[in-house]
Design brief:
By secondary structure, this protein is an alpha/beta fold. Helices cover 31% and strands 25% of the residues. The chain is built from 18 helices and 27 strands. An 8-stranded parallel beta barrel has the order 20-21-22-23-24-25-26-27, surrounded by 7 helices. Strands 1, 2, 3, 4, 5 and 11 form a 6-stranded mixed beta sheet that branches. Bound molecules: phosphoenolpyruvate and manganese (II) ion. Manganese (II) ion binds next to loops.
Length: 565
């Protein structure tokens, strides 16, 4: 006789997290996954026998118990037969082509909304509307072609309903996880003989007398039954009485548990075993080691890798193209020091053919007593100089709170060597729509540089440029040691453009030209150099700044190499 396919109900539309969990739980078996509008409908279908099992979320690592699932379990005397814990990563989904700025309404399930509270604070003008389902919100946007609305939902929902991800992994805590339980109407027969880590969930209430809960828990101690969770829900028909749910290590059929339950029953009005089931063992590939990118074979691949993205990334800044066979020069003073200094230095950069103007407004200085930059005033002066010479501008951002402000004035955001592993800052620039110039930390390996880029890419910003700026070695004759082989090595590993900063790498003006030529010869996509109209007066990095004739000579040498006109 042909075996009937098992029917499993879940709450939500196709593409809901419950459906993803269901397919993961039954990954070696084909099941008929049936969507229901509410958890109550899943339970009704189970009781009528139109489905064999139901999958419901029961706990979330950010918001805690999914209380109505606990209530349904006890009110309907259901049995838990399996559990699964899934990482939950939310996206902000929109109708194709819709920008973040156009969003007026954001729909999702209330649980998903509360897992993204901090992210949603970034949309003060949008109305946040709770609905029955994450995937249901995505479906509505697709069906009605809404161009002012976003949904918070998972990857599957984006795929099924053809929506675009505007932001990814928007949950406030990256280790957001939900536990789902598979429920059945009848008691399944399992007696715990099999060697497996079992766990058991029971619910009981206590008589209204002093110390009753304490006494019940004491029984568990007496029989050495380990309790891993305790939670309570109000008894809905008897006000101020509570049902206590406990999770225990082991099987309900074990000697210790049988004896313990007998004793507890004597002290309580009610005790019901909700089920003994296998403790979920995390499939490691679902968690931290998994990358969001995939290669042609569907295997996980980091987003920075050529496996995930075989073509070179070209970053476009105004009319400047970076990467993909062009050679770009970013030049300007280390810091913005004032209008005269900035305009005069920008003039040198512009007249000699630099493509992008640099200048630090927020300076990450080794000593707290050194010049810290002009801050907002510096941003304004840099912008003014860029506009005067029609050049895009790049400047460093050193704190997550400043990202929005710096992005208002700059065309490219620089993350300096000292902040390469400031992961909160990386995530913040990852959420922003300006290209990011990421400098290698002076103590960082190539792998660490790539993983820092991954932080930015994983938040949805795919405009990342890497920069080798020298690392610390025993050699002190140069300011740092340029790791020249890192350039072709990075080219073997990533599709992102790779720059060289010969100014910070050497600290010596006379070395900047030969090192720049070497960088170009070995395959770099561009260089960043410091130029000052009067190096001796510079408030930061005076020793390494190129003067006008030195910069002119550098640019002439680069042109001679045929790198640009
Ligand atoms: C800079 O570009 O001025 C700078 C501070 O560089 P780094 O972060 O590479 O030291
Ligand atoms: Mn500098």
């Amino acid at each position: 006789m042909e075996k009937r396919m098992i029917k499993v109900g879940f709450q939500g539309e196709k593409g809901a997290y419950s459906e993803m969990a269901l397919h993961q739980l039954f990954r070696n078996q084909s099941v008929d996954a049936i969507p229901f509008r509410t958890s109550y409908d899943v339970v009704d279908a189970l009781k009528k026998g139109s489905i064999d099992a139901g999958l419901l979320p029961i706990d979330n690592s950010i918001v805690g118990n999914i209380t109505h699932t606990y209530d349904l379990l006890v009110e309907n005397r259901l049995t838990i037969t399996k559990e699964i814990i899934m990482p939950i990563h939310h996206n902000l989904l929109v109708y194709p082509g819709v920008s973040k700025e156009a969003i007026r309404y954001i729909y999702s399930h209330p649980a998903a909304i509360s897992q993204c509270e901090v992210f949603l604070r970034g949309f003060p003008g949008a109305e946040i509307i709770p609905t029955y389902d994450t995937a249901g919100s995505a479906k509505m946007i697709a069906e009605k072609a809404l161009t002012d609305t976003a949904a918070i939902a998972g990857d599957r929902a984006a795929e099924i309903y053809g929506l675009e991800k505007r932001c990814e992994q928007i949950e406030d805590y990256p280790h957001n996880q939900t536990r789902f339980v598979l429920i059945a109407a009848e008691k399944p027969v399992n007696n715990g003989d099999e060697v497996a880590p079992w766990k058991t969930t029971v619910v009981f209430n206590t008589l209204d007398q002093p110390g009753m809960l304490y006494q019940c828990l004491g029984v568990l101690e007496k029989y050495h039954v380990n309790m891993t969770m305790l939670t309570s829900r109000p008894h809905k028909t008897e006000p101020w009485k509570f049902n206590f749910f406990v999770e225990l290590d082991g099987h309900a059929a074990s000697d210790a548990m049988r004896k313990a339950f007998e004793e507890i029953k004597k002290r309580t009005g009610f005790l019901h075993v909700l089920g003994s089931y296998h403790r979920f063992e995390a499939d490691k590939s679902l968690y931290s080691s998994s990358a969001p990118g995939t290669d042609k074979q569907g295997n996980n691949a980091p987003l920075y890798s050529l496996r995930a993205h075989p073509e070179a990334t070209v970053v476009t800044v105004k009319d400047v193209r970076i990467g993909g066979g062009t050679f770009t020069v970013m030049a300007g003073p280390c810091s913005v020091e004032g209008r005269h200094q900035m305009i005069e230095s920008a003039k040198i950069a512009h007249e000699n053919g630099a493509h992008i103007l640099r200048g630090g407004a927020f300076k990450p200085r080794t000593s707290p007593y050194s010049f810290q930059g002009l801050g907002l005033e510096g941003l304004k002066l840099l912008r003014e100089a860029g506009d005067r010479f029609n050049m895009p501008v790049i400047t460093e951002v050193i704190s997550p709170e400043d990202v929005a402000l710096v992005a208002e004035y700059a065309d490219v955001l620089q993350i300096g060597a000292r902040n390469m592993q400031n992961f909160v800052l990386l995530q913040e620039v990852g959420r922003c729509n300006k290209p990011v110039f990421l400098k290698r930390g002076m103590m960082a390996t190539v792998k660490e540089l790539l993983l820092s880029a991954e932080y930015i890419l994983a938040k949805g910003n795919d405009q990342v440029i890497l920069c080798e700026r020298g690392i610390r070695t025993f050699e002190t004759a140069t300011r740092n040691t340029l790791d020249i082989s890192a350039i072709p090595l990075l080219k073997e590993k990533t599709h992102l453009p790779v720059f060289v900063d010969p100014s910070h790498a050497t600290g010596i003006p006379t070395l900047i030209e030969p090192v720049s030529r070497a960088a170009a010869a070995i395959g770099a996509d561009g260089i960043m150099v410091e130029v000052h109209f009067n190096p001796a007066t510079a408030l930061s990095d005076a020793d390494q700044a190129l003067s006008e004739p030195q910069f002119a000579s550098l640019m002439a040498a680069m042109k001679k190499m045929g790198l640009f006109m």
